[in-house]
Amino acid sequence: MKRIITIFSIVLLSLCACTKQNHQVKILAHRGNASTGSEFTTDENTLEALRRAQELNFDGCEFDVHLTADGELVIHHDNKLAPGLTCQGNTLEEIRAHKLPFGHQVPTLREWLVQAKKSPNMKQMLEIKAHKADRETELITKSLEIIRELDMLDQMYMLSFKTSTVDEVLRQEPNMRVILNSSSLHHSLTPEEVKARGYHAVSYNINVILNHPEWIEQFKEYGIETFLWMVNSPCTYNIAKNLGFTWVTTDFYDVITK
To answer: Which of 50, 51, 215, 256 has a beta carbon 3.0–4.6 Å from 237's, enabling a disulfide?
Structure first.
C-alpha cells in the first residue's frame, strides 16, 4: 500500500510540474467570480459575481437554480438561506427580503440571463439543484421557456449530478448542451457510456480523473468536452492543462492564473 501511495504521489507531482504550453484551457467561473486573490469579497451566485466574471472575460460562468414554493426560479447554491428560510420551501417575496452576507439579494433566473446575454461569448452553465422528480421537471420546463424567450440556447449548458435529470433536459430540448457532474470514484460514467447517452460534456472531480486519466483522450475522440473541478491552485491548473481538459472550474481566478 505504501508503495502504491508513493507512486501516486510521484505521478501527481509530475503532472503539477509539467504543462503542455500549446494547450489552452477554458476557465469557468464557479458561481460567478466572487473572489479577489484567495478571499471571497462578494456573494457568489449574484449579479455582482456575474458582472465581475464578465469584466474579466471568463469563458463561462456556472450558477445554481432552485424552484421556489410559488413556482419561481432563483439562483443560490444551497437550498437553505437562513433558519426557517429555504429556496424551495419559501416564496420569491420571502426569499428576496433576505440579504446575503455581502448585502446582495438572491437573483432570479431571468435577471441572471438578461445580464448574461450582455456577454454572448461567455457560456452559461445552469446547474439544476436536486428537487423531487416532478418539481425538477417543472424547473427544467420553466428554465427552458426563459432561455428560448431570450434566444440564448446557443449560449447555454444545463447540468446535474443525476443522469435522470440530464436525460429529462434532452427529452424536453434535444438541442441543449448537457453536462454530467460526478465526484464518485466508482459510479462515474465511462466515455463509452457518456457517448451512448448523448451527453455533450462531463464535469468530473479531480479524484475521478486521477484514477482514470486515460478517459480524457477517449472523451476527446468522441467530441465530448471535459471539465475539471475544483481547480483552486496552480498545481491543479497545471494538471488540467497537462492532461488536456477542455475546461477548468475555479473559485479563485487570481490564484490559478498568477
So the answer is: 256
Residue tagged 428560448 (cell numbers): 148
Per-residue pLDDT of 76-114, as tens digits, reads 999 999 999 999 999 999 999 999 999 999 999 999 999
Q: Cβ distance 31 to 13 under 8 Å?
A: no
Pick the CATH number of 24-66+108-257 from 3.20.20.190, 3.40.190.80, 3.30.470.20, 2.60.120.10: 3.20.20.190
> How many Å apart are CA 217 and CA 226, to the nearest integer?
10
Predicted TM-score of the model (pTM)? 0.93
CA gap 125, 141 in Å, rounded: 16
Nearest to 32, CA basis, from 96, 93, 91, 119: 119
Count CA atoms within 13 Å of residue 70 on its CB side.
8
Residue 46: alpha-carbon gap to chain centroid: 15
pLDDT, tens digit (0-9, with 9 covering 90-100), for 178-206: 999 999 988 899 999 999 999 999 999 99
> What is the separation of C-alpha 234 from the centre of its chain, rounded to a whole number of angstroms?
19
Q: How is the chain split into domains, by residue range?
A: 24-66+108-257
DSSP 33: -
Give DSSP secondary structure letters for 207-236. Answer: HHHHH-TTHHHHHHHTT-EEEEE---SHHH
Burial class (CB in 10 A: 0-12, 13-18, 19+), 149: exposed
Backbone phi and psi for residue 11, each to the nearest 5 degrees, phi listed first = -60, -45
Q: At what angle do helices 163-172 and 133-149 cross, to 10 degrees?
A: 40
How would you classify the pairing of strands 73-75 and 26-30?
Answer: unpaired
